[in-house]
Amino acid sequence: MDNILADKNSYKTDRIRAIEAKVEAQKIAFSPLTFQAIQALRSLSILQIIEDAGESGISIAEIAHKAGVSEYGAGVLCEMALGMGVLRHTKNTTCQKDEKYMLGKTGWMILEDNLTKANFDFVNDICYKGAFYLTESVKTGKPEGLKVFGEQWTTIYEALSSLPEQEKKSWFTFDHFYSDIAFPEALPIVFANKPRHIVDIGGNTAKWSIACCTYNADVTMTIVDLPGQTAVAEKNAHKAGFAQRIHTFSGNILDESTKLPANPDAVWMSQFLDCFSLRQITKILTKVHEHASKDTLVYVLEPLWDRQKFIGESYALQATSLYFTCMANGNSKMYRYEELVDAIEKAGFELKTAHHNLGSNSYSLLVFKPCFNKNL
Fold first, then answer.
1. Phi, psi values for residue 5, rounded to 5°
2. What pTM was estimated for this model as a whole?
3. Cα distances (angstroms) measured from residue 240 to each of 178, 180, 188
4. Of 341, 368, 366, which Cα lies nearest the Cα of 182?
């Protein structure tokens, strides 16, 4: 997909020619195989071998020798990558026996671009096997693909601390890659109001809380999350030297018995609400409202797919919604701006300000204030 500027009207037109549409349809039809072809090229270090060869290129025989695979195996993978635009032949190729391969621009992105690497590993290690159950998930409203990691969990968040190390690494890299990039721009916005106590709901590994304590010497943080996550957060807070300023509160935010710290200066939720349905978001914010003072500000940091600069980023977020459907919880997604704001305002809040395009991944920081004269 061309990484062109995002335009809402692009979803209302169908300018592609029929012959081009047929090509795109073939790409979709074979996409599970082509994805694994690129994964093989990565894991066998063939893409790296080809990049190292530079502009002069490298033959299949040389690739096979360096990668320790047969010429047949190297050949079928490279031919598929050629068809995908991941690789290309060198310009001086005159006949088949002289063919040499070099990286195309798409190949460079797969090998070197951090966003693409995070997405690729996440899909391969977390989503790929479970995606087979997407249709079943749509029917049941449950993350049916999660069963590939075990039958004992109802959401992936319960499973995180128990995932194999590679899968765990890919999940957290994906999660942190997106939101962490926006933190430097979000911090001055939050601390412009001089909060002394911030409740970090869904604080995960404590990255935001640690960033806040590093940024401001006076703030104290309370992380609210599931027991597995708060245990990790406590270790990270201690390691960072902020054990006295970062506290944790374990509990399921959707459980009626879970109470939040009262009257915080600010409540922070970073890439958290996309883990819940719109109805659940309203329920969560209603609980936040019950424990807020009239001066409490609520900060919601989310990547909204209709507020992205480029269509490639919107596409990635639309695809991430499918992860939520079949792997994470079965009922949430990456939201549009208006539907997320509406769900929060139904809980008794009013949008105060909206800061878009934070970080290279175009995050939106939505700031809400409670309304106490509103009929909920």
1. -60, 140
2. 0.86
3. 22, 17, 21
4. 366
